[in-house]
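Field log, afternoon session.

UNIT: design team B
ACTIVITY: writing a sequence onto a fixed backbone
BACKBONE:
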C-alpha cells in the first residue's frame, strides 16, 4: 500500500511536514478554548487554499502549535504570513471584546514564529545514507 503522506505533482514527489509555533503578542494569555477552536477552523481553511493540510493543531492561552503537510511550491514564510494574518483578522473581528483586553495596538500574533521540518528519517540516518552512497568510478 502506498504511503498516504507521499504526494505526487507534475514533476515532483514530496512528503514535507512543518511544525509551526505562533505566540501571542507579548505572550499575553488571550486564547480561550472557543478562540482556539475557531483559530483551528480558520487555519485549516487557509492551509487548504495553499494546497496544504493542517494535520494537527493545539494550543494554550499564549501560543499555538501546528503540524502542516505542504507542497514544495509553497514557501513556508508565505504560508505562515497568511495563517497569522487571516486568523488575526477574523479572530479580532469575532472576539473583539475579549481580545481588546489583552492586546495592544490590535496585534494578535508576535511577529516571530518557530518553523521546524519534521517527518521522515532522523538526520543522522539521512547523513549516513548519503555518506554510504557509491561514487561513480573514474
Amino acid at each position: 500500500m502506498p504511503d498516504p503522506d507521499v504526494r505526487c505533482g507534475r514533476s515532483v514527489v514530496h512528503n514535507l511536514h512543518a511544525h509551526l509555533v505562533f505566540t501571542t503578542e507579548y505572550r499575553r494569555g488571550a486564547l480561550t478554548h472557543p478562540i482556539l477552536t475557531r483559530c483551528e477552523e480558520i487555519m485549516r481553511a487557509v492551509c487548504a487554499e495553499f494546497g496544504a493540510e493542517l494535520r494537527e493543531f493545539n494550543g494554550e492561552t499564549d501560543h499555538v502549535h501546528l503540524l502542516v503537510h505542504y507542497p514544495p511550491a509553497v514557501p513556508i514564510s508565505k504560508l505562515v504570513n497568511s495563517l497569522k494574518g487571516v486568523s488575526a483578522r477574523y479572530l479580532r473581528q469575532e472576539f473583539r471584546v475579549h481580545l481588546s483586553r489583552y492586546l495592544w495596538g490590535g496585534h494578535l500574533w508576535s511577529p516571530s514564529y518557530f518553523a521546524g521540518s519534521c517527518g521522515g528519517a532522523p538526520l543522522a540516518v539521512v547523513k549516513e545514507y548519503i555518506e554510504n552512497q557509491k561514487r561513480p568510478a573514474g
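LOG NOTE: The helical segments are 33-49, 76-94, 96-100, 123-131.
NEXT ACTIVITY: expression trials, pending approval
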